[in-house]
Amino acid sequence: MSSRVHACEYTVGVAAPAGVVYGMLADAARWPVFLPSVVHVERLDFDGVQERLRMWELADEAGADNADADADGGGVGGVLGGRVGSWYARRVLHPDARAVVFEQEDAVWPGSVTSGVWSVRPAGETECVLGLRQERGLPVAAADGARREAEADVHRRLAQVRRAAGRWEQLDELLLSFEDRVRIEGPAELVYDFLYRIGDWPGRVPHVERTGVCEDVPGIQVVSLDTCAAPGGRTVSTRAVRLCFPHAGRIVYKETLTPELVAAHSGEWSLLPDASGVTVVAAHQVMLRQEAVSPVLGAGTGLLEARDHVRAWLSRASTETLGLAKWHAESTVRRLR
């Protein structure tokens, strides 16, 4: 099939210092908490300048646009994002020029390549101009529609970075990372099986009232949950994409519908086996929604109190799940002896 290279370039003003915006672009591993459409980024190789990444993203562009529209308030990423795309990317970082050059497999047109460059130009101490140029090889037969999709993709990505960077002054207070862990005297396979079978959690995990699981592609679960882990026993509905890596003993997830206080939440269940058992780690990366703090927690509540509240709430839920995974694995071993 014949193809034609389509190039497009756009810029947008950002209310953040150029160094802050470049830092966001360079730190791709944190994109799941900054960019609504990004599910997970795995760094495969890095020498300080060049890196190779594998990325998972909500490939439904309409869904991603809806997630962007919600990013300033309301339920972030309320769509489950019809399809999860995955591809490999190579990037070259140029911190002095504040540019990131990239080349990646195209998620919309498999077999073609998208290349380009992110650029950041200062426009004052607390403002900059963010640019994105993309070149995409497109089938000639689909030229008109594909061109519109390519240009919409550039606008969408610029808008996502602009929104995330606009919070730069509060980022240290809005972002929190923490983990819970438990030691289990049992085989990693039993623990992983418990965590993987999230559809069985109602009736097994007390704070989980309902789950819905769709796994059209093996290892990629689209999950909806109703939980009562919030203070006061209030039911909270969330949705998430889970990427399951059984051979590595990992389950990575990104919430696409979050509670009111949470603007973004990604995390990972990871198993660290040893000679006599396994240590299971539940890691969380969270961005708070500042405008929801007072309406949810009461007037006069600050971000520090909100951080403590969200950490205690999520930690309580993950610790309970880890404890039940421990009971499941160790009691099964006792029965088999």
TrEMBL record:
Q: Which Pfam families match?
A: Polyketide_cyc (PF03364)
Which protein, by its recorded name, is this?
Answer: Aromatase
The lineage's top-level taxon is: Bacteria
Q: InterPro entries, from UniProt?
A: COQ10_START, START-like_dom_sf
Q: Where is the Coenzyme Q-binding protein COQ10 START domain?
A: 14-131, 184-286
